[in-house]
Amino acid sequence: MGWLLSVLKALTQNPHKTPPSGCAALPAGFQGLLVALLAGLLVGCRQPSPPRASPLANPSDARPLVLTTFTVLADMARNVAGERLQVRSITRLGAEIHGYEPSPSDLEAAQGADLIVRNGLGLERWADRFIQSADNRAEVTLSEGMRPLLIEGDAYAGKPNPHAWMSPQRAQHYVNRLVQAFSALDPAGAATFRANGEAYKRQLGQLDADLRTALARVPPAQRLLVSCEGAFSYLAHDYGLEEAYLWPVNAESQVTPRRMARLIETVRRRRVPTVFCESTVNANAQREVARAAGARFGGTFYVDSLSDASGPAPTLLKLQRHNVDLIVKGLGPSAAGR
User: Fold this and answer.
1) Where are the domains of the chain?
2) Phi, psi dihedrals of residue 103, rounded to the nearest 5°
3) Is the dihedral of CA 100, 284, 154, 157 positive or negative?
4) Topology (CATH) of 217-335
5) Rounded CA gap, 67 and 91, in Å?
6) How many percent of the chain have pLDDT more than 70?
7) Strand, coil or helix: what is 130?
8) Nearest-5° angle of CA 279, CA 284, CA 285?
9) When you count CB atoms within 10 A of the terminal residue's CB, does the N or C end of the chain come out lower?
10) What CATH number should be reported for the domain whose range is 65-210?
11) How much is the pLDDT for 132?
């Protein structure tokens, strides 16, 4: 390395100086080229820089970093992790997660992660590229081992519906997967993760009972839940509801005249009093459905993203209660005849 520095110094200090006896002078153009080549060689000989910490991590925090693909999973992960792990969501509050495109900073974040948590069932296809960029980082798919419900119509017919966390019963499967993954990542914390997981599942069990009681107030003739996205299949399956929507998943969120006409006809024929839409998509088309069908727009569901702390859905538990409150108000006995 020292000889490279000496040559560069000699060539750059005084290029017009007469060369020593016996040495031919180098043409100016060749001399510049040689400087550039030697400088490139010098840079190439440097030691590689150590991996940079994830921009989502707290540099002063030595705990393992867990990255989740969206905010709902981050909330679930924090309930299981307690204080033993850092948990961050790759996507921000309010982001549309189906067709999300990772930014360079997202890919950089993956390099510092110790574990990447995703939903699976085709929800975050973009996460494949993200995980590949993370080299050999551990990853866990929370829906793995679960028998999914299949989408029944439209372009996605026969494919798994990815929104399994919308069922409190299915969400408990997610918790079990998180306990397993966190225990492998941090074996010393395994007992803590198990205890936190059991406590969280008790809360989900109570939520299940509360939702069942609340939704029992919806009359049988008014149990058609109409939303923008077909994100409520698991909730509808577990609690005896039916489902209709503008599009099956947000990745296929084009509002075609055929889709809109079909939904308007369904709402009219079934005399659905209230329709809804999700927070991560534009509700204008659904408001038009309500106007054309003689229904009312009943408010905004949260599904793919939590709200901020001041909103109605800052956690999964509150998200579910908020959505069911809207359903009961919009479809319950007091909604009849609207």
Assistant:
1) 65-210, 217-335
2) -85, 165
3) positive
4) Rossmann fold (3.40.50)
5) 10
6) 79
7) helix
8) 105
9) N
10) 3.40.50.1980
11) 74
